[in-house]
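Backbone shapes recur. Consider a single case.
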Amino acid sequence: MSFKLLVSAVIAVVVGYYWLNYVKRGPIYESDKKLNGRTVLITGGNSGIGKATAMDLAKRGARVVIASRNLKKSNKVKDEIIKESGNHEVRAMQVDLEDFDSVRKFAKEFDESEKHLDYLVNNAGVLLRGMAQNGLNRIFVTNYFGRFLLTNLLLGKMKKQSAERPVRIINLTSDLYKYVEVKESDMTRDAEGYFDSCFMFGQSDLANIQFIHNLSRKLKDYDVTVYIFNPGFVYTEGYDDNHDLQELIFDAPMFLFGQDVYYGYQPLLKLVLDDSVVKHNGGLFTGFRHDELLPHATNESSWEPLMRKSLEVTGLSSP
């Protein structure tokens, strides 16, 4: 073997080792905590981080409710979780966050049929182009307004329960919030391609962050804590059904540098299981790390008009 070939082989091994262990993999959260008697609701729990979290928490004895648009797929995942975990306390329910009637129906059924709600994980999100039936951008409606409505409809149950047992609400987000501001004018138009969809995705993330940050103050008299979780760059099932050139260009680095789902959901376990996170109520976690929110995400003056718009769009009378 020539010297150049040997050097190339060594470099390839080193790069491969680094890629596998520091890019595709990550830290693992270790805890033997059980969740018997606790109920977890995970939106988008039939794929990606949501599915991995549902599986893990079911193995810990939790009652897990998977909520998604595709009930057939959710039932298949439910059966898979029951088989692997041995826990039969797994339920699949249908909810379409883009359809507020569906959200209201789901919330009513959940409230009436489930005794407790200990953990609400707002995980479902889309990167779909197009407009919802109410004339607003689908990304805004599903990723923010749907979550806002669902959380508020279940808030009474969680507040009442918190007198006897604590509750946690976790909203997933991304780094895209850092580069945008929420604009009402963008809510009423379709995205002009993949990158513009990402821009709107970032706005929906920022709206969620502002909502959760302010919700923590609203709930200060209750044993209900709220968190914002950014899993980082995780390679999971695609959000976008519009496979244009821009998306294909993005998919390559996503595959190369996106963390595997198994490692991507590990920090979410900490937010569910670890009592040390309570001191960061209303805060942002990027992976395992607690991060300070950027000033524009905690600006009260920008939240007020967004709150009014949220109440108007969802038909709620109060936040």
